[in-house]
Amino acid sequence: MLLPEGCDCLLHLTFSESVNSLVSNREHNIFVALTNTFLYFYLADTHLLACIYQREDEDISERGFFKKAYWKPDSTAIAVTTSKNFVCIFNVEISRESSFNLHDPVGENTDFTRESTELFMNKSRPHINVNLAVVARLESTPTCILTFKEELFVCLKDGWLHRLSWSGNILHELSFNIRSIQQEQTSNNKNQRKDVDYFVSDISPFLGGICIVYSDGKAALVVSSISEFRPGSISVLFAGGLNDACCCSTNFKFRLLYFGCKNGEIAAYSTNDVDGGLIQLFRIGLSIKDGTELLEKISSIRQINCLSPSGDAFAVLWDSKQNSAFSNHNGDLINGDAELIFAKTNSHHMSCPPVLAIFSPFGEQWWCSLEDSTIALGKNRQSNTTLDNYGYTSMDWSLEGYQLWLGTSNGNLHLINIVKSIQSIHDAMVFVGSDRIFVCPTTQDEQIASHLIWQLIKPPHGYITTNWPIKHVSLSVSRHTDFDKILAIGGSHGFCFFNFRTKKWRMFRKEAEERSLFLTGGLDIFGSFILCAACNLDTKDELLYVFRIEDQLDVDLAHFISTNRILQMKICNSFLLTFGVDSMISIYSLSISDMEQLQIECIAEIRVAEFLHHPNFSFCLNIFLFLLFLGLISMELAKLNFHSDALSFCSDLDSLLINASGHLLLLSPMESSVQQLKGQHKEISNENILEFQLHPPTLVASYVEEFWVVHPFSCSSFFRDEKYNFTIPYLSEALWINAGCRKFRLWLPLSIDSQDKNISSDPIKLPQLRQNSRAFISRRIMIPFSLEIYPFYIDHNYLACGANVTSLSFSNITSKIASTDDISTTSELTEGDSLSDFVSLAKSDDDAVLSVRSLTKTYEVFIHKLIKQLLKRNLGSYAFDLASACRSISYFGHILELLLHDLLDEEASSSEPIPDPLLPRVISFLREFPDEYLPTIIHCARKTELAFWNLLFFVSNHPRQLFQMCLEESRLELATSCLVILHSLTSIDESSRLACKLLEEAKRKQRWKVAQDIIRFMQNINRATEKDSDLENVPTSPIQGKLTSFHHQHVTPPFNLSNDELSFPLFSSQVEIEPSYVQQRRISGSGKSSDPSRHVTAYTGVRRLN
User: How far apart are CA 791 and CA 788, in angstroms?
Assistant: First the structure.
């Protein structure tokens, strides 16, 4: 999950012009901002302006204004399109020599001498030189460009896709016209598009081809049967049901194609593995909780940008309806002067602030700028000036997605700082920024307000400046008191770790050793050891290092084993999972010897190359290899297999879960044919590592973003702590799946291990176990349910934990760096210039209002949703077992209340008859818990609307019966609450009689607190009666007369109720006007009335069943 955090940054361009394009190179460490006449090159980490390219007037008049910029994959060149059909290719020279070098003064003026290490700029600050190399004149207007290592795809408005080399040569034999391609459609579709003047308006690379958007709103995937992508081998796969696309982007990791639509929605497609076509996965729009009127002012999508290459998120920019009137189909401004247009429209009637949103890979909305109080208000409260006189024109991600760079129409660069959660940590909430870590306490006894208190941890300045940004984070499992809680972080080289007890960092003793370790597979912590997968640059060896926490960080003191290059690693209990560059998953056992040494032994190797999708042509091969180094899959060991012939990978963990491109696969070992003949049953060990086979992979779920299992830590004696053990077996053995906009899923077991162990201990019932275990999939059920939050993990109280963002604003922030003769620079700066001419943060403009955002931890109860889904599927016995196992939870009563309350709101407010209502079934389920039945019904009635009481008390018990049951069970507090309900349903005399009865019972049992509340209740009734007696002489109003006449009309109740049940008025069947103040308040405060006739069909059927 990616969320904005901290303070935004505003960079002012030297010459105030609208930013037409803002793009970063493939490494996301250099940004280029393109205006009509300038090219600005910024360094991503330091935000320094490294280079400016200014055009001459003659060049502008001849070739037109700059429109869009495109980087070469190796960052050695950049292609720029102009408004007069030119493509300009610039050579970019990036030297290793540092720029912006500050020198301390020498001599008497020593006030500016730097004494702290934080004042020294150790980050990379290369020199950048730009020169024009190639100018290519085109026959038509270029719409978009797709760049590769050796050439470019240049799309023109006449339908041609030219292959242009970076040296300026057009490869005519490889160029083709999109209108002449043999389309994989029916003949009718061909005839419909034969005479249409369409062209490619947007293009994006994909692993299986090229994603394109047509000018008429169609979208397709262009594929080729050969690797050279020649015209004769090209075919087009159209996205069905999409006719209003305007832009596109691709996600390599999850194999998704995102299309922005003209109505403001986002459509996502994926390739079908069966026939190779495109299938739509979801189509979503922008949603906000407050300020929904702003959604009507949003027009088409301007840009979609997927975080590459990790694919963990994508950002979306929208146009307002005023701005879209001045833009063409491709989002380009018609007259090229965006600043003037935005100024004119916004100064008069534009009221929609800039719209930006961040989504998960499968469409779950994480954050929206309209929900940001600063951006959504669009007004400076101090100066009372409007701030909506600008819009976002372009955007791109920074390295690792830690910043989102936005180009604006008023000549600024808006930088939003981003933090992201760690997917490998599911027992704590950890957010990581580019140079900081946020750790939230997971237990309530550590912090009083754990949802508000975040522990901010900053790495040492000496490490982060040379290894920016943070790429790997690992948090030790704090379930054993003998080990200190450790946080290990790693950048590009080496690592360091933080001890929570001592509050100190530890780094490598020698900087040369730190620089020699190039991290490839990350970090992990096991007990008092830190495991590190790295490449030793001195020896060029791929090694798995083991460092002891008590020792100094020294390569000479570390133990290591030789491996292939490891891309990912994860510790599951006492076992280590690694995924290598050879598409091999290795399982290692971890154990501590008597000599306090960590022993690592490989016990299984699984090849998963067939589950990974490789590119089918050479253009995407570099993209695939670059993506492979970041890891294509997620993996986890679990105990899920119930095959009769199943083996165990290690200990009791007999299943390997792999998330490949959103498809969650289950791999489980089985006996080989040789072992089956010998009748052997044994675990996999190092001796028989080649003797086991795998069952055919089972597809557990699709559209999976994250998944995890809860390990009970029973396999390792190092992490046993009863405080953290999960006591609910159904949930501890479940598989938790996060599916984006398709909400949360739980693969819940319908039987637990204790039942199987009781059967397996009986030799007579052992065949029954094996027969049941053959259908282990049917013994689990996939339960989907929606949550208001995006969950990261399930804590020890079985609460779903997430996070959201709260924002504040501040204005008129000025950051000026004084210019003095005592400080000089060794860059292109002259002696009279100052650094503030190149870097400025929110100068003294009146409209400079930025946001300061903070994270807040959120919780949500979800167990009642599981029980509801089980009851809906007629699995009442399993729902009862699950609820019975949850009785030890402190908020178990609240779970039952939520179950009843949510279902009551759903069925009572339904506008259509419900053929099979679930409410009677839930009431019968609640009766199975006698201790919680009465408080659940009574508390739910007091918290719900009065209009729903008729339905609630019809399927449960009459309020008088509930009152009598409370007296019989001596639950006088509940009887007091029930008395309040009866007071709203009966007359004052009846309420007074029941109150006296309850008062006598309280006196007899010496419950003086209850008696005091009843006396206060009766005094209020007397005061209301005296007030009503004064109102009897008031003349009757016409409205009251009409209501009184309506009271005398007879309405037949919809249900066959007894005379005793008809003694209290049904709000839906009759209305009474009584001289009681309480009765008048009841009529006016009911909010809305319900029509029980809507439920006649439903509940008549229920009564027949009973």
Answer: 9
Low-confidence ranges of the chain (pLDDT < 50): 184-188, 190-191, 195, 326, 329, 331, 333-350, 377-388, 444-448, 450, 480-481, 618, 621, 624, 627, 629, 674-690, 713-726, 754-777, 812-848, 1031, 1034-1106
What is the rounded distance in angstroms from the CA atom of residue 428 to the CA atom of residue 440? 7
> Residue 92, Cβ neighbours under 10 Å: how many?
23
The answer to whether residues 58 and 71 touch, using CB atoms and an 8 Å cutoff, is no
Q: ∠ CA(930), CA(936), CA(940), 5° rounding?
A: 160
Which of helix, strand or coil describes residue 1001?
A: helix
Burial class of residue 1029 (count of CB atoms within 10 Å of its CB; 0-12, 13-18, 19+): exposed
- Check residue 541 and give its pLDDT: 92
Cα separation, 47 vs 461, whole angstroms: 18
Residue 1083's closest CA among 1038, 1043, 1049, 1051? 1043
Q: What is the 3-state composition of the chain as percent helix, strand, coil, each rounded to the nearest 5?
A: 25, 35, 40
Phi, psi dihedrals of residue 493, rounded to the nearest 5°: -135, 140
How wide is the angle at C-alpha 247 spanned by C-alphas 244 and 252, nearest 5°?
120
How are strands ordered across the β-sheet holding 355-359? 298-306, 314-320, 355-359, 365-368
Question: Class of 144-185+196-326+352-374 per CATH?
Answer: mainly beta
Look up the pTM and report it: 0.84
Domain 144-185+196-326+352-374 and domain 419-603 have a common topology: yes
The sign of the CA dihedral 595, 649, 752, 659 is positive
Measured CA to CA, the distance from residue 690 to residue 672 in angstroms comes to: 9
Q: Is 405 helix (H, G, I), strand (E, B) or coil?
A: strand
Rounded CA separation 570/586 (Å): 11
Helix (H/G/I), strand (E/B), else coil: 359: strand
What's the CA gap between 380 and 209, in Å, rounded? Answer: 48
What distance in Å separates the CA atoms of residue 363 and residue 282, rounded to the nearest whole number?
8
Q: The tokens of 977 are what?
A: 């609450």
The pLDDT, as a whole number, for residue 807 is 82
What token pair was written down for 375?
């951006």
Is domain 419-603 given the CATH code 1.10.10.10 in the classification?
no
Cβ atoms of 322 and 403 within 8 Å: the answer is no
Rounded-to-integer distance, Cα 664 and Cα 34, Å: 42
Within a 10 A sphere around the Cβ of 652, how many other Cβ atoms? 15
* 513-519: long-range pairs with CB below 8 Å, 24+: 513/554, 513/555, 514/463, 515/466, 516/555, 517/493, 517/545, 517/555, 518/492, 518/493, 519/471, 519/472, 519/490, 519/491, 519/492, 519/493, 519/494, 519/495
Which residues are 669's β-sheet partners? 694
- Do 223 and 230 meet the contact criterion of CB atoms below 8 Å apart? no
Residue 198 has a CB neighbour count (10 Å cut-off) of 15
- Phi and psi at residue 305, in whole multiples of 5°? -135, 115
Residue in the block written with tokens 């492979």:
628
pLDDT at 469: 92
Spatial separation of the C-alpha atoms in residues 686 and 675, rounded to whole Å: 16
Closest CA to 414 of 442, 436, 393, 431: 393
Residue 1005: what pLDDT?
87
Tokens (6 digits) for 911 = 């506008």
219-224 and 209-214 beta bridge pairing: antiparallel
Joined together, the tokens standing for residue 596 give 């306090």
Contacts of 764 (CB under 8 A, 6+ apart): none
Domain limits, the chain? 14-99+122-137, 144-185+196-326+352-374, 419-603, 633-672+693-715+726-753+778-807+850-889, 892-1024
